[in-house]
Amino acid sequence: MQPVSSLHDVRLPRWLLPSGWPTTGGTPCAARIDIAQGRIAAVRPAAAGASPGAWRLHGAPALPGFVDAHVHLDKTFTLPRIRHIEPGLLGAIDALASDREGWTAGDVRERAGRALQWAWEAGSTRLRTHVDWWEADRVPVAWPVLRELAEDWRGRIRLERVSLMRIAFHEDEAEARRLARLVAAGGPDALLGGFVHTAHWNEPALRNLLLAAQRHGLDMDLHVDEELTPSARGLATLARLLREIGFEGRVVCGHLCALAAQDEAEALATLDAVARAPITLVSLPATNLLLQDAVAGRTPRRRGLTLVKEARERGIPLLLASDNVQDPFCRLGSYDPVDALAAGALAGQLPEPFDTWSEALCRADWLERPTPAAPALVGAPADLVLFVDADVHGFPSRAARRVVLRGGCLAHGTPPAHWTAADAHAPAVPAHALP
């Protein structure tokens, strides 16, 4: 794959641009991006002129490579073989249980590998998958398979694995430590996880889980309050326990639907506590819109979206992600984080999806500890997603057709002729190249 040396007249989101960037009528001016040795060497206003051989994008929007921070590769693409699914979260859990009995390493590898290919083509550079761990004394079949796939895809997609365990497994402190050791042995991209829900609320077990993670230097990723029960206290309790323990890692919390059902003062007080804790939030619009307030034959009255605007106002790191794809929990999905943004923008009435909320698809550093204060393009790998048909005003509409660059080289998609033919010295670029 021949590298691209420069992108000219490309529109970057406001959140990614340095302070003092020129604007026209309050709108950021287009940029020129210079690329050298697979990294972004410079970003300057397009008014500086194009370099020889530059691709001229004529104002097309561009984003850095995506992080899909919450998916389920072990479950994915199981929907076609499951005949009946009762509405709601518990119905989906029951439907999957019977299918899971027939999982083999080959079955998981084929389905998860297909998902990774879709994610690559969408422009994702990092995925974090939860892995159902339903028996404390047996490692699930998907756990080693996904570790193998992580190695197979290394250098293209970073794949992390989270042990999605029942909170009751951690009632005994010694057992909690044993499970944490087992997860830690899974490698540097393994994280400790759990499912925190009012149906099996257990604060002592949650404390043991956190202490075990702390002891073994593990970051955590939890399903928290995936329900519309106003009495759910998982997130509030977690923020308090982290403070009491002095937790030194990073905790990512997905779903958090209950915040939208609680008294506003109480919900906002919880978010105030989260803002003081080492917590990143992940909203999963598509799955939660389908699962929450789901009753057969009845139009849902309540949305499953958590309080994304209020979290962002408090400076809490917040990401949007795909979650389930074509399984009992979500019959839709494509492993394209832009689809998650589209669902969230409509459900949450999010203003300026491109200039503001696209940040929730790209900030992989928000999964780290500590999180940097501001993003920077210069010096980063030239992993970019260029949108052929979209514009910033209607984004993410018409965002399906795209060109994906990895290390400054064409990885997927076909650049339009008017991007590459505007300069007679433009380098020849292969029309389509897959990894």
Please, could you describe this protein's structure?
The protein has helices at residues 89-100, 105-122, 142-152, 173-184, 203-215, 234-245, 264-275, 285-291, 308-313, 337-347, 353-357, 359-362, 417-420; strands spanning 6-10, 23-24, 27-28, 31-36, 39-45, 55-56, 62-64, 66-71, 124-133, 158-165, 190-196, 220-224, 251-255, 279-283, 318-320, 384-387, 402-406, 409-412. The chain has 435 residues and is α/β, with parallel strands linked by helices. The strands form four sheets. It has an eight-stranded parallel sheet. A four-stranded mixed sheet has the order 5-4-1-6. Helix 2 (105-122) packs across helix 3, helix 4 (173-184) packs across helix 5 (203-215) and helix 5 (203-215) crosses helix 6 (234-245). The chain is globular and about 65 Å long.
CATH class of the largest domain: Alpha Beta
CATH topology of the largest domain: TIM Barrel
Q: Total strand count, please?
A: 18
Q: What's the helix count?
A: 13
From the N-terminal CA to the C-terminal CA, the straight-line distance is 10 Å
Uncertain parts? 422-435
Sheet with the most strands, sense and barrel status: 8 strands, parallel
What class would the helix/strand composition place it in?
Answer: alpha/beta
Which range does the strand content fall in?
Answer: 15-25%
CATH architectural name of the largest domain: Alpha-Beta Barrel
Strand order of the largest sheet: 8-9-10-11-12-13-14-15
